[in-house]
């Protein structure tokens, strides 16, 4: 059984509205171009496809896309956008679920590798990606760099968003490499806030590279964003591409 937390129906129904900025043309345009270039004329498989924020428009660009999704509620929202024939989705976890065929591209976006809460499961996720890739195929992950440089000695929390509608902060367990994202979201005009939280296991780029090597994949490229900016010590996230040898 996976350690990932399961998205509820209420969360799935709110997801697209609350992540509207991530679905904007400014964000999605470079993401789709990056992934479409890697897929070429081949098929793409999205781990944790969710409501189809990336998978649906990538399919509309002409890339055949399939998905794996743990939450039936998230998949149900996706199904309103694309039918099973257009974009097949298998319910299951991304570390062990296998779908038919080979793919030129397997990808995992928006920090979702951290939803697997143990190192063993993250390693199995890389192995599962390699299992689905054709020779020469690529595995792509988008995830944040742990912001531990922002933690003064003795402090365990880092705010990442403070606005009228939302206050978000992460708390860290540095020994277990775990963080908890806390969200306080204002629902209405009465000033009341809804509190939510989710657990994540963070990993440094070097640890992910070792997971890739265990799975038989080689690092091909690492950049700071979907536009291809260089990855530096000041980058807050990375898009990494590992290749299955031909």
Automatic annotation (TrEMBL):
An example Gene Ontology biological process: methylation
Tree of life domain: Bacteria
Signal sequence, renumbered to the chain: none
Pfam families according to UniProt: Methyltransf_25
Chain ranges of the Methyltransferase domain: 45-137
Disordered: annotated segments: 1-20
Gene Ontology terms for molecular function: methyltransferase activity
Ranges that cross the membrane: none
SUPFAM superfamilies assigned: S-adenosyl-L-methionine-dependent methyltransferases
Name of the protein: Class I SAM-dependent methyltransferase
Lineage: Bacteria, Bacillati, Actinomycetota, Actinomycetes, Streptosporangiales
